[in-house]
Amino acid sequence: MVGDYDSRLPGVTNLTAQKVRLLHSRMSPLIEEQPGFGKTFLKGAMGKLAAIAGMLVLLAVLFFYFDSVGASMYYSGHAEQALGPTERALFVQKLMYGDDNPEVVNTKRNLARVYDSLGRVDDAEVLYKEALAWFKKYEQQNGAPHPYYAGTICCYGDHFAQQNKYDEAMRCFRETLTLVEKSHGTTNQEYAWTWQRIANLNRKMHREAEARDADARARAASQGVSSDGENATPSNGGSPLKNQRTAKQ
Known about the structure:
- By secondary structure, the chain is mainly alpha-helical.
- 74% of the residues lie in helices and 0% in strands.
- It has helices at residues 2-6, 17-32, 34-75, 79-97, 102-117, 121-142, 149-162, 166-184, 189-204, 208-222.
- The radius of gyration is 31 Å and the shape is elongated.
- The model is unreliable at 1-13 and 226-249 (pLDDT under 50).
């Protein structure tokens, strides 16, 4: 039966014991070299891991640089100069983490704010919707809002206020108040900032009485804030209205 099977393969029909021994003798050195091959493979794998680690470090440095420059330009009132670095920061961060990451979502919010400053409200809307969709999924999975959500929904309110969509803006600010109160109480800078936004919005709507009331609430919230702008008794978790890296507020 072996002869019949071998006859289907050209050149194998007349395979003799001598040829088998010759083939074995040629394969033996290869078999004996396997331990060396394993060391070479391990060395190559370690080299690749080192290269990957180096690349991750480089990406982290690039992100920090672009993010810092973007924040500096944004807060100095140069939104046009902030645009390129912030877009690059988001690109680099996506390479590091992908889309499903809270830091990436936070950077999307920062870029949306730059877009709003440049009047590119449609581009900002896309990023806000992507961010809010991520936060919604996070809350469904974890049973509680992500700490970054309050800052994002507050900035979304600014986005609406800029377009004179007052009802939508007010809804965002009210939701922010609820979130900040639950996580940080009512005597902190974030709570004061949000009430001030509501006061400004009421003035745009010619509601002076409501605006004065919101002003008073903002002042009351600021009473427990120290001179450096932080809570006199900080609560855990950081500021919900600040970018946890660059405080883009």
